[in-house]
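Give me structure tokens for this 53-residue protein.
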Amino acid sequence: MTAHSSPEQIKKYEKNTFVFLAVFLAPILSIIIVGGFGFMIWISQMLFGPPTS
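Here you go.
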């Protein structure tokens, strides 16, 4: 923000940033991380075989 921003503009910017992070970024990142981990396990089981007991 610039030095000439009013408190209302700063609050609006912070609210918009929070909504973006909470509603869009966090769910998308969680899906990517969980999906990537599952894909990594799937590929490793194709290469090395499933775990045996």
